[in-house]
Amino acid sequence: MTLHANLSRRWILAAGGAATLLPGAGVLAADETPVRGGTLTTIIQPEPPLLVLGLNQQAPTQTVAGKIYESLLTYDFDLQPKPSLAKSWQVSGDGLTYTFQLQDGVKWHDGAPFSAHDVVFSLKTFLMETHPRARELFGRCASIEAPDDKTVVFTLKQSFPAFLQSFEISTAPIMPAHIYEGTDYRSNPKNATPIGTGPFKFDQWEKGSYIHLVAAPDYWQKGKPYLKDIYFKVIPDAASRALALETGDVLQSQYNDIDPFDVARLTKNPTLQITKKGYEFVAPVMWIEINTRVKPLDDKRFRQAILYALDREFIRDRIWFGLGRVATGPINSVTKYYDSNVPKYPYDPAKATALLDQMGLKPDGSGVRATLKFMPLPYGETWQRLGEYVKQALGKVGVSVILESTDAAGWGRREANWDFDMTADFLYQYADPSIGVSRTYVSSNIHKGVMFSNTEGYSNPEVDTLFEQAARENDPKRRQQYYTKVQQILVEDVPVAWLLEMEFPTILNKRVHNAITTAIGVNETYADAWVDKA
Amino acid sequence: MRGYMIFVGHRLFKAVFVLAAVVVLNFMLIHAAPGDPATVMAGEAGAADPLFIAQLRHQFGIDQSLPRQLLIYLGHISHGDLGFSYRQQRPVWDLLAARLPATILLTFSAFLLALLGGVLFGTLAAINVGRLTDTAVTVLALLSYATPIFWIGLMLVLLFSVDLGWLPAFGYESVGSGFSGLTRVADIGRHMILPVTTLGLFYMAVYARLTRASILEVITLDFVKTARAKGQKEWKIVWRHVLRNALLPVITMAGIQAGQLVGGSILVETVFAWPGLGRMTFDAVLQRDYQVLLGVFFVTSVLVIGFNILTDILYSIVDPRVDIG
Known about the structure:
By secondary structure, chain A is α+β, with helices and mostly antiparallel strands. Chain A has helices at residues 2-21, 59-68, 116-130, 132-138, 177-180, 238-247, 260-267, 300-309, 312-319, 349-358, 381-396, 408-416, 433-436, 461-472, 476-493; strands at residues 38-43, 73-75, 81-83, 86-91, 97-102, 141-148, 151-156, 200-206, 210-215, 227-233, 252-253, 272-275, 285-290, 325-326, 370-375, 399-403, 422-427, 496-501, 506-509, 512-513, 530-531.
């Protein structure tokens, strides 16, 4: 625990230090008096299909619905839990019982009172039916009960210390029982007008144009929110989004809204400020997914050669324009239980060719040792550039790469059905390795037809056992030992070729204050955010 | 008049079969693309387990056999029901109707601008053939035709919105302004200027070139010489004799384009964040939102057929030698 805490704090200090060099590091400062009645206009891209967070968890849905709905907890930049709908909580000594006390005076947007029953209904019934990650996490409970209106008690079947990281808004949004209980959730007519407990309530959705939320008058945190309303504008073109920030048409962008090559230019704009904080909870790591069933990708020397052949600093600096950190292994350095003490793969084409020679893969007449296919992630230009770079870099060590293009639907179908040699992918880590990391590497998660499972087909009994032990271990010190060991094994085996710990820029107009205050960044409720008068 | 009635009736009869073929063919084509809406939604949600995908497939009705899905769809469409978008949780017709006003406003304004401007500039170029006006029109037309449409759009935004600050850069109207009545109309008008110009320029170039070429061909014909010999004024000759005869290819082109107007323009709608049908269709392709796609295709087919009939009637009005019987 201490090891990880030091490491993660160091990272965060480093990140914070970098931010102060940039204009307008006052994003997070809370020392000024908030201005009331401001309007925040921001970008929403792509347009979400619906806003009921319990039914749809796409990134843009989270950003909008995170203002409408609330969960029991939120998390600070160090991933420590903070109160949201829960005002306090206790964990029993054996790590099996979690007791939460709920906030007072909470009302749903339609005026109905909120109670512990809503929490039990959401986590035990609603999300169990609709939400894959919640199903996995709350399926670990032997019981979820409400002894009174203000208390919820979770009893686990087995200890699972990451349980306290399971109450973030995208995993465990609390849904209104009085609207959904006993209905078909997906066809409930109220889905068009979501009802939550959050500081903003749904007002209007002009499809293709904008979503409008207004301050909820009876919000349980008295005197908040400071904003009068929020407009989420749909702007489908990346260049237009950058222009919209420059003209002040919108005051905020997040995630991939702005193409990496535009970020540097916008950073120089005196009206804008940029922060990379607020993504610590999701902390995605990007990698080249390797189908280990395909020869010669089944040989770990070949996979190691791929890592040596790629200049990952080049990928960060020239393709992602400086956004991101070179990944050392499966766990993001801001996620819990990261350990940097693992084998390293510096850019070294000579070592790559030596490994290929050792495998007996000699170059043929035209210098080709092996031919493989690479399917770039169909998420825009940057990922296409990555594909082109991989082709070029592997070509230099004699691995000929054929690029295959797909669209999102085709990519999903092929990745899920193991119909690829190599592809690019990134997964969120959700604060704890037992939630967001182990799923990629444990053999129990090899499921044909399911995206983002262990699609590379890596199977190592020792890794399975270590992840299993670590997930159950209550003692943080022993837990760290398990995770250190598993990181070392995985980095040696290279089941996927880790490229970058991804960073996203949140670009804000300097008129916006107190927006990014927690590890969930733009998905936070924005009860504390405010905007200067124009 | 009776001739027209028989003609239209005949064409409508044929249209039913064309439409049925279009629907079946589109259905097959769409389902031939890899992946389905459940895969897309699971991918976007980032988390997926077998149960989640199975639930979505069941909800979308794509767990049934393809012929059965087709039969169900044909059944719906024969009742004028375009189906339900499970992704967007709304009936397809509602989705189309919500986007239609903005689409029509953009495309028809651009269409009118292009047609009037194109014919005007094309005529000017033709009667001044070889002179400065002709060269200027030809070069400008070539430029607008050859420059990528999204680039023109972005450059116009840079100049008129970012640098000069005269016109709004995006959207259909000022969001949250609370305008109503004439102020709102004026506001929408201001938002229309850039996208309509961008989209109109491209087609204007097409019409200008078409008109110019066609006039140059007609202007040398004997009846024009006769008109000149009669001593008619030049503008009268161009208006009454030349243009009417030269317009047929322009009408053909306009007829084809008019049928596609309702489909919107993906590029212009994307650059200007215009809430039109083109973008919705494009998104629907990527999201494999089958029902929405089929709905858009169906409505577009109906309009193309309608405009084809209209074009044929127009021929005979503009040039009575064309017999539609």
